[in-house]
User: Fold this.
Amino acid sequence: MIRKNAKAILAIIVMTLMFSTLSGCNPIAKALLDRAADKTESADDPEKEDVKEKKEADEKDSKKKKKKDKKKKDNKDSEISEDIYKEDPKEVFAEMSDWMFIFSSGAGGWSTQLSVDPDGSFSGTYSDSDMGSTGEGYDNGTVYLCNFSGKFSENVRSAGPLMHSLSIESIEFENEPDTEEIKDDTLYKYTTPYGLEGVDKVTEYDPLVYMEAGAVTSALGEEEMSWVSTTHFGAYLGENWDYVEDKPEELPYAVLINTLDDYAFFGINNSTANKTNLVNTVKLPGLKNTELTINKDGTYYCVDENADGTFRVINTCFKTHKDYDVYTDPERPVRDCLKKIYGKDAPDADSLYITSPKDAFYTQYSEMMVNGYYTASAFWSVPGHENEGVYRDGRFLSLGGYESDTSFVYAYIIESESSAFPAAAISNFYITSLALTGRDDRISSAGEGPGAVRSMMCDMKLPDEDSVEAQEYIMVGSEDKELIKKYHLEEAPFDDDYELVPAENGYRSYKLAQGSNTPLYVQYPEDKFHRLFFAYDFDEYLNRYGDDEENTCLMTLYLNEDDEVVYGYEMYVP
Assistant:
């Protein structure tokens, strides 16, 4: 049997502790923990299975008796404990009604689709086909089918942050399962709904968990995540079309979990309101939110900028009835976005450079992805203050609804003047830290702290707790006679027209402004997918350079007024 992911178990334990008070324990959380423990036992030995089943039956009877005795003894406390988990079923069902839940592996033509009404009733269809399975009277093949409907119990309880435990009160089938008939030269075999089989028979605990968009993905077990990851959170990339996962920390859409079999239904928005937001996983210190409008339909417009307005971030989502495909036709959504944002000041065709994932097939293809979705990229420049050029770099994404003519287009644009801190160079890195989430409280990219006031090029050693060792370097150009004389470079080869000279003060310690969460961007990650590292895992990246004495990296570090490292990125050296 599948062992549960350790992180998922830990997350559930934390949630259990958060929501458990008095003498009670959240029933669904306890069930998840019991289920995880059960899966660590071997299923290879039939005798063990028999012993296990007998033991489980005895424990079950014992638990029932203890539970009954406890209820008689302390009924008042039990009622109070249960009440703290109860939720308004109307609110939960209304939220669920905005999603079409789909159970599918992404391979083959089978799927189970489930829709929920605001009153808690539901309906759905499971279908699969085998056109090669033919016989007398059914030359067109075989279809496996189950049309079903039912109702969820109104006994809805909290299972953790943005998580709700559910059970099925009743379920009915249009055709009796395990029957068949031939119609239109096709054999129809009627079944139960794959993904929900047996769930209505579970009475010991609530077997379903509804996770809202924005819930943490660490609450999903390994098996449950595998069902989601085959259809989301990854893409086939590169010359060999390798599958690369890009799992967000928070769900960008709703998920329905069948804890009985570790199945997961992913949700597709079927409402006319936006349910998914594009955010940066790193909040950039020094940025302040200057505008944030979240409309009733979930669309939004957000602006963050530094103190003097030389570095600006626009994050927006708008609704459209156009059908966009940024993979095959990236220009249309990009131009529509820019026209929506800048109006008559939108860049013209001659100054705008648009790149699609097709263009990036061999190089930097990973930059074109956000949690498994293709995006388009664009950059352009305009005149700025005092003849400073303003560089603009954007990412564009389009998500369609379920059987709807409504789509949502997302744009994340960085505007940076050449003299700004951070400089325009970091926008290329910062804009690759995007992710999708169902939460709208992370739309702003503004981070705590004053931000950068200066930068330095350095040779950086491995992080040590909350600090790094760095030696500053000076770049000397082949035409800079004064610095050539100062650093005695008259005989230097000046490859690529410059030389790097270490500063005389040697290595010194620099504190990381955000501790282990200080962002450090790298040029050449081994997986070719993520460019963002935090200090706690940056040392693994540096380990590829050799032994301890050689584990260094040429970086540009941005420092705040206290000489703390706010963020940094690996230098590109030809």
User: Anything to note?
Assistant: Residues 454-570 form one domain. Residues 1-56, 63-80 have pLDDT under 50 and may be disordered.
